[in-house]
Design a protein that fits this description.
Distance between the termini of chain A: 16 Å
CATH architecture of the largest domain in chain C: 2-Layer Sandwich
Strand order of the largest sheet of chain A: 2-1-3
Low-confidence stretches of chain C: 23-28
CATH architecture of one domain in chain A: 2-Layer Sandwich
Shape of chain C: elongated
CATH topology of the largest domain in chain C: 60s Ribosomal Protein L30, Chain: A
Structural class of chain A: mainly alpha
Order of helices and strands of chain C: HEEEEEHEHEHE
Low-confidence stretches of chain A: 23-60, 67-162
CATH superfamily of the largest domain in chain C: OmpA-like domain
CATH class of the largest domain in chain C: Alpha Beta
Strand content of chain C: 15-25%
Mean pLDDT of chain A: 60
Number of helices of chain A: 11
Oligomer: heterotrimer
Strand order of the largest sheet of chain C: 5-8-6-7
Radius of gyration of chain A: 22 Å
Helix content of chain A: 55-70%
Number of strands of chain C: 8
Strand content of chain A: 5-15%
Helix content of chain C: 40-55%
Shape of chain A: flat
């Protein structure tokens, strides 16, 4: 168990290192090839992106970690869920009142809650680690899991320097949507469920058009889980409006595709 | 390597010419239960009065049951009614989506009801607040005294729409109600709604009764009774109250369960101290011996397609779980973990087997795949056993006993449920102590 | 790997000491030998000098020396009282699943019955019934109580 974990960690950090290093490294190598000059020219902007990215990433991750820590310190999710409705309309007193009443009503009910919360906390620890993992790592992980290895590496490369979003920008957007997306907890974890949504955005990040790429599947019989997932993804982007998009480069991110994949979460 | 580089270069060149569509993978979200607002059903002022039912409060009562059901799933977070921003009748026509979104609700349930000519007419809608559209709507008519079931059926429909999975609220649980001191327990058959309401006792407690199980239509129950000090398997029709001994066995029969088509009962029969598994066809009364081994073979459970039977046996020395074809051939041991395994129960979906595991003086409820791989222990305790599946295969109900003091004080037996994810463990409300639960199928199906 | 070996050794030592200490406590209490109850606390008598019950080890239905001795006394008593019929009740402790315990109680009752029959008591005079874990004689949740509950009891019918 531990050994395989160590393998996985070294393997992943290796991949992460590779992806970080590979870009400049690759640029250097093919210097003798004629068309490279133009490539180099393009790369310059990307290079700056990337050289900034590790720092930015670190900051973002730290922030995220902080946020997560805050969440788990404040209250384990089980309790948090209960507080949520209160939080908006009512002051603290009522919260406490409710909890006390609950204790009185049914002392035996508390135990499972405690247990549950600790379970959740456990989960959160894992999650923090996962978040701390680099984006590329997450992709590589998927690539290992799924067999479409090449495709995804390609798309990850596409993400990292083909798109107009820097990694930090992408992270910001991703983090925003993470927060809005209530993963349907009842979904089976062992099914291949991926929902791709294509968005057309306005300059302020609000959504002009949203389209589920495989929307016919929603109404096919036996695809209830897909439908549920698709609807939850749509809810997420709508609730997130306006999306956190960069202030510049509108025509780069005017059209954007979001791939919602809950497999990892549901497995955990 | 070179190929890859060239590929990359090509890619970059291509991108230079036209921006590729930005793709962002969303692999994480929040795991909080979905915030849902259940507006009280609007009660039509033209409603008649029915004795014994507070019609004015019926809308609120129905919505409260729906809320409780949702809360118990662990998947939904019903929001507090104090925060609701719209009157039930207006919300039911067309909710002001922005306002409901303000209280962080993602889904909204509205409805109305009318009692007329002695009939209860209920209509409800489920709204997707982010998309500002109706997700599902349904109306039905029933007798007013059935209002609790109405609430459960509404819960089932909404659950199905939001999770993609059948609900399990319009169901019952049959169990053994226990009372009295630990060494002089009085046990009665009892049946209740899944949420603990409407408890009815089916036997008087004069004789020991154990292990009741529903048939697939939930109208018949098979159980074991010590009536006249003859421990035998019985068959009880819940609707008519008639009961009979199953078969004409010259010794103890026990551990009964129905086949998935409801036509057979599979059980253990103990002859000269040796317990083997038998089936009896309820129409033809033909008895078939399924296992023939000098070990204890018991706790049989059919697979949902009826082709296999899982059971526990101590033929290897200690209690372990085995699977065989339903004719008794091809017996295969599936548990090899350290510990003792018992009470295998096949999930309604057919892909999992729930079980009890005993190890180092602790008891676990767990699930594994039907070949014994992928064991997941869901809950650990001093004593717990006898899992039974919810009809959608998502939740297990079982019973748990506490440690007793030197005079048997502090002993209790209660029903508990847990998701197959291992989350959301909770105690079921029963009027008395309880054990041996069996979950019915969906009644409204 | 070396670490593993060391760990194994340590565990072995710990295990051995545990076993030893377990033995010593069992001996001290004087009521449980190995896993089987040897005391007299719950025992009743069919007649003077004829105990009504025998005790078993966990998950076992084999007869101990003491159990055989008791059963021989019962057989002698039954041979003297030819008109007497008995029921042997088999019981299990609470630390097993209900259904398995029913089968186990049945097996224990029949182990006692078979032994009586080998001493010339007609099987027609002996009926058996299993109560599994349903009728504990000692309701406590202790190893002692469990050992007292793992029993088969010979009860006069007429």
């Amino acid at each position: 168990m531990i050994r395989s974990l160590i393998y996985s960690i070294t393997f992943h950090s290796f991949i992460v290192l590779l992806t970080i290093l590979s870009l400049p490294f690759m640029l250097r190598e093919p210097i003798d090839l004629p068309p490279i000059i133009s490539v180099e020219l393009i790369q310059i902007s990307d290079k700056t992106n990337i050289s900034y990215a590790p720092k930015a990433r670190k900051i973002i991750e730290e922030k995220k970690k902080e946020e997560e820590r805050l969440v788990s310190e404040q209250a384990p999710p089980a309790a948090k869920a209960k507080e949520k409705p209160d939080r908006i309309p009512l002051p603290n007193e009522k919260k406490e009142e409710k909890q006390i009443v609950k204790k009185k009503q049914n002392p035996e009910e508390i135990k499972p809650q405690i247990r549950q919360s600790s379970e959740f906390e456990k989960k959160e620890i894992i999650d923090t680690n996962q978040i701390a993992a680099l984006i590329d790592k997450a992709k590589e992980e998927q690539a290992v899991k799924e067999k479409a290895k090449q495709k995804i590496t390609q798309s990850s490369q596409k993400n990292s320097f083909a798109t107009g979003l820097t990694l930090s920008e992408e992270d910001a957007l991703r983090a925003q949507i993470f927060g809005c997306w209530s993963v349907p907890l009842g979904l089976p974890y062992d099914e291949d469920l991926l929902v791709r949504i294509k968005l057309e955005l306005k300059q302020d990040g609000t959504i002009m058009k949203s389209e589920i790429l495989d929307h016919q599947r929603m109404n096919r019989p036996g695809q209830k889980f897909y439908k549920v997932l698709a609807e939850s993804a749509l809810r997420a982007v709508r609730l997130c409006q306006p999306l956190k998009v960069p202030p510049t480069g509108y025509d780069k991110w005017k059209n954007i595709q979001l791939n919602f994949n809950p497999t990892e979460m549901l497995k955990g | 390597m070179k190929k890859l580089i060239i590929l990359l270069i090509l890619k970059v060149l291509f991108i230079k010419n036209a921006f590729a569509l930005i793709e962002v993978d969303i692999t994480r979200g929040n795991l909080d239960p979905l915030p849902i607002a259940v507006s009280p059903l609007h009660v039509d002022i033209k409603s008649e009065n029915i004795e014994g039912i507070k019609i004015k409060e019926l809308g609120l009562n129905i919505s409260s049951i729906v809320e409780k059901n949702f809360k118990a799933t662990g998947l939904f977070n019903p929001l507090k009614k104090e925060a609701f921003v719209q009157k039930p009748d207006i919300a039911h026509l067309k909710p002001r989506f922005e306002d409901w979104r303000l209280i962080k609700a993602q889904a909204l349930v509205t409805g109305k009801l009318l009692v007329k000519d002695g009939k209860l007419k209920v209509e409800f809608r489920l709204w997707d607040l982010a998309a500002a559209k109706e997700m599902t709507a349904l109306a039905f008519t029933t007798t007013p005294s059935n209002w609790r079931r109405v609430a459960h059926i509404i819960s089932d429909k909404i659950y199905e729409r939001l999770t993609g999975e059948e609900g399990y609220f319009d169901t019952r649980i049959i169990y053994v109600a226990e009372s009295g001191a630990k060494n002089q327990r009085v046990k009665k058959l009892a049946i209740m709604d899944q949420d603990g309401a409407n408890t009815k006792y089916l036997t008087l407690g004069n004789e020991l009764v154990l292990t009741p199980r529903f048939n697939p239509t939930s109208q018949m129950v098979t159980y074991m009774s010590y009536f006249r000090n003859m421990p035998r398997v019985y068959l009880l029709d819940i609707e008519t109250g008639t009961q009979e001994v199953v078969g004409n066995f010259p010794g103890m029969t026990f551990a009964p369960r129905f086949s998935p088509d409801g036509k057979k009962i599979v059980m253990s029969f103990a002859k000269d101290g040796n317990s083997d598994i038998y089936t009896m066809d309820l129409d033809t009364r033909v008895v078939e011996r399924i296992t023939d081994h000098s070990s204890i073979d018991t706790s049989p459970s059919f697979s949902p397609d009826g082709k296999f039977i899982a059971f526990n046996s101590d033929r290897s020395g200690l209690q372990q779980i085995y699977v065989m074809r339903s004719d008794g051939s091809g017996v295969k041991r599936i548990t090899f973990g350290d510990g003792i395994y018992g009470t295998p129960v096949w999930s309604p979906r057919g892909d999992l087997i729930a079980f009890t595991k005993m190890r180092k003086g602790r008891f676990y409820i767990g699930v594994m795949r039907i070949d014994g791989t992928g064991e997941r222990l869901l809950t650990e305790n001093y004593y717990q056993e006898a899992p039974s599946w919810s009809p959608n295969g998502r939740v297990l109900v079982f019973y748990r006993e506490t440690k007793a003091g030197s005079k048997g004080e502090g002993f209790s037996a209660k029903l508990w449920s847990i998701d197959i994810t291992g989350y959301n463990e909770r105690r079921l409300n029963t009027e008395t102590d309880a054990s041996d639960p069996s979950w019915s199928s969906l009644l409204s199906k | 790997m070396i670490l593993n070996k060391n760990l194994k050794n340590i565990l072995l030592v710990v295990f051995a000491t545990l076993i030893l200490s377990a033995c010593s406590t069992a001996k001290k209490s004087g009521n449980i030998e190995g896993d089987v109850y040897t005391g007299k606390e719950t025992v009743k008598f069919l007649a003077s000098g004829v105990p009504d019950r025998i005790f078993f080890a966990t998950n076992k239905s084999s007869l101990t020396t003491a159990a055989r001795e008791t059963l021989r006394k019962q057989a002698t008593y039954l041979r003297k009282n030819k008109s007497l019929n008995v029921t042997i009740e088999g019981h299990a402790d609470e630390r097993g699943t209900r259904e398995y315990n029913l089968a186990l109680g049945e097996r224990r009752a029949n182990a006692a019955k078979d032994y009586l029959m080998t001493y010339g008591i007609s099987g027609k005079r002996i009926s058996t019934i299993s109560y599994g874990k349903e009728k504990p004689v000692n309701p406590a949740s202790t190893p002692l109580a469990w050992s007292q509950n793992r029993r088969s009891v010979t009860v006069k019918v007429n």
